[in-house]
Write a structure and sequence with these properties.
The chain is mainly alpha-helical. Helices cover 45% and strands 9% of the residues. A two-stranded antiparallel sheet has the order 1-2. A two-stranded antiparallel ribbon has the order 3-4. Strand 5 and strand 6 form a beta hairpin. Helix 5 packs across helix 8 and helix 7 packs across helix 8. The protein starts with a helix and ends in a 5-residue tail after the last strand. The C terminus is likely disordered.
Amino acid sequence: MSNNDDKLMHHEYDGIQEYDNPTPGWWHLIFLGSVVFSIFYFTFFEFSSVAWSVHDVWKANQTREFKRIFGQVGNLEGDEGTLLKVMNDPKLMAVAEGIFVGNCAACHSKDGGAGGGMTGVNLTDDHYKNVSVLTDVLNVINKGANNGAMPSWENRLSKNERIIVAAYAASLRGKASPNGKGPEGKLIDPWPNVAVPGGGPSGGSGS
């Protein structure tokens, strides 16, 4: 019997027989690799605290656009009035959110709650370890705290970036992360009121 006959399958349809032609090994490897990749892909994007979504990509693109406008604000100062003004500027806060997620979320989580065993403090409650007044948030970002557990960002971010990310971190207060870490430090007074354009003041916890 010829080699071709050996490859013929035993069933026949309308006088036609098929070759027993198995799927090549490389195809099985690609299929197996796809299955393994899909497991890691699903686990990372569904359960990892550092995974990103289409919304995060959109925000990153938005942040790049707002950074184009960033140069128009000039030299910001780290006083209380400037921080309050930045907290009420949606474009600057969008830039600040991008900076926060890119640099701070690894310790404080994306929502600032520091849940899931993260090392940072919860920024969404009213308790603070190294902050008594609003400008202290910027001081901690500038100089660090807790013997380096919170690093200094003075040589990592520009002055304007540090100021707007301080305003953003302060704005997280009162947003109560559902999985946030428990209170640490002391309960402090609310931030000063933030003036809302076209309306009255918005005060309380600085949210």
